[in-house]
Specification:
This protein is α/β, with parallel strands linked by helices. The protein contains 4 helices and 8 strands.
Amino acid sequence: MVRKLIFFMTIALALQAGLSRAGSNDDLLFLQLLGPGGQTSFDVDLACVAETATSEPQCATVHKAFDEWANARQIKLRSIGKDDPEFEGKLTPAQGPAAEYRVAILFEPVVVSTMNIWGGTFNNYTPGSAGFRARLFIYDANSGALVRKLEFHDRKQLPDDANVTPAIGAEVQAVIAKLDPGYTP
């Protein structure tokens, strides 16, 4: 019980301190992704890819959080593959009416299990961790031009046997807050 309390306190403090990042909210302010009254002016294409078997189940957490957000804010959300040209800076201009921007998000949850290696005269312990890397490609939907490319990432150590789903969920919400600061899940 104490470990779980410490775990959640660590997550809360880390979120208060902000995400480790190559981009910040300031990078998104000039785009005016939200119109008057909080109306969104963008559609979202999302890919989730896990590099390890322990990370793979967390893509369900990622998709669920983005689905709930998109439904609540009436944002058009589409799932795409990690090899989509949008992640290479290429977007085909919209044909017909479109939102002002298209945001392509490549979200990579990272979960590393605790490791204990015992051998003869040595003992090696590596604590588990959970984190993510999210790359955002923001396009002008009408011209197809890449307007901004951002990357956010974070990784935290976890207590042994910790449930990583709340940690990944908190990271997803932090990325959503970068796009939509007024959203509350």
